[in-house]
Amino acid sequence: SASPQQLSSTIESGERTTSGHSLRPSKAPTSAWMSFPMLLDAISTKISSSNKNLVDTYYHKFK
């Protein structure tokens, strides 16, 4: 079990651990970043219009 000082240091660094293993990704993502509206537009031909409207509605509601 981690000491209070170790936990404090872990919390301050923003790193979460489980059983001593870091949950931080080992490297930065290599894929291009895409905004949600662009992603929705890109997949709009693959989903039904009612599902697209539903996702769009929830996106704007929780944005």
What does this structure look like?
InterPro entries: RST. Residues 27-63 form the RST domain. This is RST domain-containing protein. The protein has 63 residues and is mainly alpha-helical. The longest helix is centred in the last third of the chain and has 14 residues, at 49-62. The chain is elongated and about 40 Å long. The protein has a domain at 31-63. It is built from three helices and two strands. Helices cover 51% and strands 6% of the residues. It has helices at residues 4-13, 36-43, 49-62, and strands at 17-18, 21-22. It has a two-stranded antiparallel sheet with strand order 1-2. The mean pLDDT is 74.
Task: Sum up the overall morphology in one term.
Answer: elongated
The parts where pLDDT drops under 50 for at least 5 residues are: none
Q: In angstroms, what is the radius of gyration?
A: 19 Å
- The separation of the N and C termini measures 39 Å
Instruction: Please tell me the overall pLDDT.
Output: 74
Strand order in the largest sheet: 1-2
Helix tally equals 3
The secondary-structure element order is HEEHH
SS-derived structural category: mainly alpha
Biggest sheet architecture = 2 strands, antiparallel
Helix content: 40-55%
The overall strand count is 2
Strand content is 5-15%
Brief write-up:
The chain has a domain at 31-63. It has three helices and two strands.
Which features would summarize this protein structure in a list?
63 residues, mainly alpha, two-stranded antiparallel ribbon, 3 helices, 2 strands
Layout of SSEs?
Layout: H1 4-13, E1 17-18, E2 21-22, H2 36-43, H3 49-62
Antiparallel strand pairs: 1-2
Protein name: RST domain-containing protein
Region (Disordered): 1-29
Keywords: Nucleus
